[in-house]
Specification:
Blueprint: H1 3-81, H2 86-167, H3 176-186, E1 193-195, H4 212-223, E2 242-244
Parallel strand pairs: 1-2
Helix pairs in contact: 1-2
This protein binds zinc ion.
Length: 245
């Protein structure tokens, strides 16, 4: 293999490594998004439960007021039975009638509150079902993501050790300049090494026009590819990518 082929093979391997690294970084983010979705269903369930509890409390409050009103009326009826004067009788009767009107209002409110609670109970049941469903789905998805993460990490480690075998021929003194240029620029640009098409005069990386002498140098390098000691790095004046013909 010529130094050019070796360099492109290394670059291809690094593209694979980058892709695995991206996936390894991305999987925990997807897992977190899935967990957040489950959290939002749980929050909806808590909200529905709170509304139900509020409705139940409201019902108890109305029932107590109805009970109190009934007890008062029973007590006042006994008092009224012992009253003698017309004015006192009328006063007590008014008091009893007012209490009964209020109790009837309370019974209407009670009916309304019970309808609200029945609806709230249905909401809780629906939210519970949705929560269980989304948690089961999330659990399965997360389990799959974990398997995938382990698999990707394994393949990444493999790719990294395969890389070492691709680097070592480029560490020969006559090829070293290409490797160090590649390693240095690879931290900022991707890809580093580019091939200019036969009919093109532009840098495939930044698309700027390359001078005739630059193209000539690149062409010369390709003719000398098997004698790397006679080659030198040819790079784009604009982006710095390594240019090959
Ligand atoms: Zn360029």
């Amino acid at each position: 293999m010529s130094v050019i082929d070796e360099l492109f093979a290394l670059q291809e391997q690094d593209a694979t490594i980058k892709e695995f690294q991206k996936q390894v970084a991305d999987i925990p983010k997807r897992r977190a998004r899935e967990e957040a979705a489950s959290d939002s269903h749980r929050a909806a369930l808590e909200e529905a439960k709170a509304q139900l509890a509020e409705g139940d409390a409201r019902i108890r409050e109305i029932e107590e007021s109805i009970e109190t009103s009934r007890a008062n009326v029973a007590k006042w009826e006994k008092v009224r039975a012992g009253l003698k004067s017309e004015a006192e009788l009328r006063g007590m009767t008014n008091q009893i009638e007012r209490a009964e009107r209020e109790r009837k209002d309370a019974e209407l409110r009670l009916e309304h509150a019970r309808a609200i609670v029945a609806a709230a109970r249905e909401s809780v049941a629906a939210a519970e079902a949705q929560c269980a469903e989304s948690e089961a789905a999330a659990k399965m998805y997360i389990a799959r993501l974990n398997v995938r993460l382990a698999e990707t990490q394994r393949r990444l480690a493999e790719a990294q050790s395969a890389r070492a075998a691709l680097v070592s021929p480029l560490e020969a003194p006559e090829k070293r300049q290409f490797l160090s240029y590649y390693e240095r620029l690879g931290r900022r640009f991707w890809p580093v090494a580019v091939r200019v098409g036969a009919s093109s005069a532009n840098c495939p990386g930044c698309h700027m026009a390359l001078t005739a002498s630059k193209l000539q140098e690149a062409h010369r390098n390709s003719l000398l590819a098997d004698t790397p000691e006679k080659m030198h790095t040819v790079s784009c004046d604009y982006c710095g990518r390594l240019i090959f013909k």
